[in-house]
């Protein structure tokens, strides 16, 4: 109705693309907030902070192989690896038969070697390697590198939490959203560090389809679920959620497509804002409905008792619309 349109307009003015009134309705009764990590909670611009080498390989060799495999990957971690290689003026090789496995890593043929870069599950050769666990405990993401079945090195990447996140989560908590969970493809220790810092729960080692399963699981228990993500490895979960909110959409079409609400600015303060807009809208909608009902009952009673001549009754029919318009237009001015 008109109240929804007014709020969608008010949202658009401040950088919120709301695809329909029904999402405002769902938002007003959300009980679970699921949050993607990389690119959503964090800036999604990681930097390589540590390089560890094994089996007599040099740092430059490890970095060169990793960056060459990542040469055409669009993952933020790939850009971090390429940036580190540029910093050392390394000339990248040309990967052949490049393969990206969502949520795990990448592999390709370089000259005649098969090189794999990714997390522990992607690089089983590194599964028992524990010397870098202290880096994960600092919230860093580890990239293991294997060449022809041999573990040759580890890169650690650090990303920055978006500065406005803690305040935004506090605002959401004060609105009564108690269940907040961080969903990530990253490992348990890295996720645990972040979730402890922010005071939310977490689930790690999730593939894109696992994120969808978490959403469905909550929905099966009768919860209304909001998912905030950036569209990288979480587009299916955004689409599955009752309300998918896309963050960092300046770059990714897939996020705008999959989500129900898109933030046109990378700014977490817009998340509590859209919840506020939704609640205000639903209050106005309820007022409008109550007003119409009362008006009709009074009108019908008067007419039935003969106090309202038919010609006046007909005219009176259109009066509530004016009241509803006036009441709803207040939503256009919300801040
Ligand atoms: P998140 O759920 O935090 O947004 P992703 O699902 O995109 O993270 O990735 C999960 C994990 O998979 C990363 O932490 C990394 O270990 C590994 N990974 C994914 N893509 C790549 C890549 N191109 N290069 C190296 N590692 C990758
Ligand atoms: Mg992500």
Tally the helices: 14
Small molecules (ligands, ions, cofactors) in the structure: adenosine-5'-diphosphate, magnesium ion
First-to-last CA distance: 20 Å
Q: Which percent bin holds the helix content?
A: 40-55%
Strand order of the largest sheet: 1-13-12-11-2-9-10
The secondary-structure class comes to alpha/beta
Tell me the fraction of residues in β-strands, as a range. 15-25%
Number of strands: 13
Residue-averaged pLDDT: 90
Topology order in helix (H) and strand (E) letters:
HEHEHEHHEEEHEEHEHEHEHEHEHHH
Low-pLDDT segments: none
**Radius of gyration, CA atoms, in whole angstroms:** 26 Å
| Apparent shape | elongated
The largest pleated sheet is described as: 7 strands, mixed
Features:
six-stranded antiparallel sheet, alpha/beta, elongated, 14 helices, seven-stranded mixed sheet, binds magnesium ion, binds adenosine-5'-diphosphate, 335 residues
Q: Would you write up a description of this structure?
A:
It is a single chain. The strands form 2 sheets. The protein has a 7-stranded mixed beta sheet with strand order 1-13-12-11-2-9-10, with helices on both faces. The protein has a 6-stranded antiparallel beta sheet with strand order 3-8-7-6-5-4, with helices on one face. Helix 10 links the parallel strand 11 (225-229) and strand 12. By secondary structure, it is an alpha/beta fold. It contains 14 helices and 13 strands.
Walk me through the topology.
Layout: H1 2-13, E1 16-18, H2 21-27, E2 32-36, H3 37-41, E3 47-53, H4 59-69, H5 76-87, E4 96-101, E5 105-110, E6 113-118, H6 133-136, E7 141-147, E8 150-158, H7 165-174, E9 179-183, H8 188-198, E10 201-203, H9 208-220, E11 225-229, H10 235-240, E12 243-246, H11 253-258, E13 261-263, H12 270-304, H13 310-316, H14 319-329
Parallel strand pairs: 2-9, 2-11, 9-10, 11-12, 12-13
Antiparallel strand pairs: 1-13, 3-8, 4-5, 5-6, 6-7, 7-8
Helix pairs in contact: 1-12, 1-14, 2-12, 4-5, 7-12, 12-14
Magnesium ion (MG) binds next to helix 3.
